[in-house]
Structure formats: C-alpha cells, structure tokens
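Write out this protein's structure.
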Amino acid sequence: RATFLLMPNWTLERPAVIEQIRKDLAWFARTCPKHELIFLCNTEEERRQIAGVGGNAIFSNHNLMISEDVFRPLPDVPVEYDAVYNGRISHTKRHYLAFEIERLVHVTSSIGELPPAGDRAFIRRLQAQSPLHSIAN
C-alpha cells in the first residue's frame, strides 16, 4: 500500500483539466487499487472540483510548507509592501487573488505568451488595481 500526495504547480480550476483528472482517477483506481492519491489543493474551489470527480482532496496551499524563520522581512529594513506577488504575465496566473491587498508589489516578466501589446495591456491592468500597487521589474 502507498499514498501519494499530489501538489499541482498550477491551477486545476479548468473544466478540461478536471475532466482529465476524472478519467485518470478511474484508470488509477483500476490499475493500482492498493494505492491512494491525495490532492493538496491551493484553493477551496480546487478541492471542491477534485472531490466532485471522486478525488481525495484537501485544501493545503503550497505556501504552508514555507518556513517563516527563513522567509521573513529583515529586521533592519523598513517594510514597504504587505505582500509580493511573483508570477509571469499570463492569463493562467491568478494575479487577481492579490488585488485586495493594500500595498502589493508584482514581480513579473513575459515569456512570450502574449504579443508585446498584450504584455503592456496586462501590466496596465495590474497597475490600475490600486495606486499602492507597483511593478518591481
């Protein structure tokens, strides 16, 4: 018997992905009946959707594994932002999850998913969320 913890590195909140997971879970149950898969979901909605197709899923954001002893503001440096959002310019990234944070800095870059005009429009939309939001790079 074995249990596998699955931690996706991108959102599963897409109908085609959930449908594929449903098929894969059925195959896995037939092929490996003594094994268990547990999805560690980044959002409650992901958990709900995975459970809806028969998966064992718990809400366990990937940041849970980050040590606050290592990743913390330096004591002698003033804090300028409430949070940092690190994500490329892409419609698959969920920048909107941080829009309600008052003082936010985005660390972002383009890998060519959008044309240059699309990249610029994307950045303008991020900057328009709040005068206290900024782009670091």
